[in-house]
């Protein structure tokens, strides 16, 4: 896997490419990088949000849980993606846990830098509007999928969701994703995820490989319905 630096990640991001040279230089000076090991927290529920968070590399999930151990995954975040803008805008505390599913490197933009961009950059504000709209659409879709679809259909829609360029910049045809990670994100067990992948492979929509999943027919995943 190609190593990407913090500077490269910021310069190539959808919003970074829209900034003026002076704006980008300030962002490069003030953002910092932090490594997060697999199963460690990217952010923790209840803590005050002080940074806008992006993934330079790795993969994570946002989830909420109860005292008795029950948990539901809200959304995933992959390399190139950013999260936490809504909480920063509200000057609030994290309402969810974000956990690294594998070793991650994260970019941290301080609240002051984030607020300065909101106050000075119209393109940055347009990007935030598009991002929040895409995330809301993702939440609505996930809610309907959880209530209306069976496990194989949910896995299909989960895989298709990675091809929303506003949430997952340039994912490529191959998704480096384990069955366990896919199960967590789709809200099914690893065993159910395994069965679903075999069914979707038999339908010619994907192929499973040692390091992940190759998507062969994206529209097919988006519209997949299990045989009666």
From TrEMBL:
What GO CC annotations are associated with the protein?
cytosol
Which is a Pfam family this sequence falls into? HTH_Crp_2
State the Gene Ontology terms under molecular function. Answer: DNA binding; DNA-binding transcription factor activity
Q: Which domain of life is it from?
A: Bacteria
Coiled-coil stretches noted in the UniProt entry, renumbered to this chain: none
Per its UniProt record, what SUPFAM superfamilies does this chain match?
cAMP-binding domain-like, Winged helix' DNA-binding domain
Keywords (alphabetical) are:
DNA-binding, Transcription, Transcription regulation
Q: Which CDD domains match?
A: CAP_ED
PROSITE patterns from the xrefs?
CNMP_BINDING_3, HTH_CRP_2
User: Protein name, please?
Assistant: Crp/Fnr family transcriptional regulator
């Amino acid at each position: 896997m190609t190593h990407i630096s913090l500077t490269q990640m910021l310069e190539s991001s959808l919003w970074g490419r829209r900034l003026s040279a002076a704006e980008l230089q300030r962002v490069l000076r003030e953002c910092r990088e932090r490594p997060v090991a697999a199963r460690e927290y990217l952010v923790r529920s209840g803590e005050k949000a002080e940074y806008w968070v992006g993934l330079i590399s790795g993969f994570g999930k946002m989830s909420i849980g109860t005292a008795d151990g029950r948990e539901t995954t809200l959304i995933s975040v992959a390399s190139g993606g950013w999260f936490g803008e809504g909480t920063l805008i509200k000057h609030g505390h994290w309402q969810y846990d974000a956990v690294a599913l594998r070793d991650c490197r994260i970019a941290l933009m301080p609240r002051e830098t984030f607020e300065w961009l909101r106050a000075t950059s119209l393109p940055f504000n347009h990007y935030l509007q598009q991002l929040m709209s895409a995330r809301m659409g993702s939440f609505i879709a996930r809610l309907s999928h959880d209530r209306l679809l069976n496990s194989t259909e949910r896995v299909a829609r989960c895989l298709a969701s990675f091809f929303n360029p506003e949430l997952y910049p340039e994912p490529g045809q191959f998704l480096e994703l384990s069955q366990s990670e896919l199960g967590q994100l789709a809200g099914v067990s690893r065993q159910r995820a395994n069965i679903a992948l075999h069914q979707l492979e038999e339908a010619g929509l994907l192929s499973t490989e040692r390091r992940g999943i190759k998507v062969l027919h994206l529209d097919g995943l988006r519209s997949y319905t299990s045989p009666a």
